[in-house]
Write a structure and sequence with these properties.
Helix 1 (about 10-40) crosses helix 2 (about 60-75). About 45% of the residues lie in helices and about 20% in strands. The chain is an alpha+beta fold. The chain is globular and about 55 Å long.
Length: about 170
């Protein structure tokens, strides 16, 4: 099966504040090199945005993909990048999405992104690797809906102030 690994560099933003933009670039370049060492010829590695790399992985079972994600996480977190006389350690969160007959490639990427968000929310409590699980996500969505309904029914939500201003430049509020 085709799987999507969505790899988010967790502390790149804070590291960038310490060593400036050129330091962030050094971390990104080092990360790209280390990821390139891990992928096989059937995989596709790409940088998606400032803090995210994506690997499209083929010809791996689900268990192999999980082990692959663990290996990537270990390799990235074991490295020290020296920038401007500062040693930097970075961590990463990895979300895994699966492309199958019920989804398309864009949905697999979105699923991996959602799983990565879950992994990041786990924070210090455990592994930063999450497989997209529609059952778990549906239960979380159901739980949130129930919480919102309960808050509405028990008058626990209120509007403090909501101005409505004209977008046409008129000076008064509605």
């Amino acid at each position: 099966p085709l799987t999507v690994l969505y790899i988010h560099l967790d502390n790149l933003h804070s590291a960038g504040k310490i060593v400036a933009l050129s330091g962030s670039d050094a971390i990104i370049i080092d990360t790209a090199k280390r990821l390139r060492e891990q992928v096989n010829p059937h995989d596709l590695l790409a940088r998606l945005n400032d803090w995210v790399f994506v690997i499209l992985s083929c010809n791996r079972t689900l268990e192999e993909v999980k082990k692959f994600a663990e290996t990537i996480q270990t390799k990235l977190e074991q490295r020290v990048v020296r920038v401007n006389e500062v040693n930097l350690l970075t961590t990463c969160s990895i979300g895994i999405g699966i492309y199958h007959q019920q989804t398309n490639a864009q949905q697999a990427l979105l699923d991996a992104d959602l799983a990565c968000t879950q992994a990041r929310e786990q924070g210090q409590t455990g592994t930063h690797i999450q497989l997209h699980d529609t059952v778990v996500l549906h239960q979380q969505k159901t739980d949130r809906v129930q919480l919102i309904r309960a808050a509405l029914n028990n008058h626990q939500l209120y509007l403090a102030y909501q101005p409505i201003a004209s977008v046409h430049g008129e000076a008064y509020e509605y």
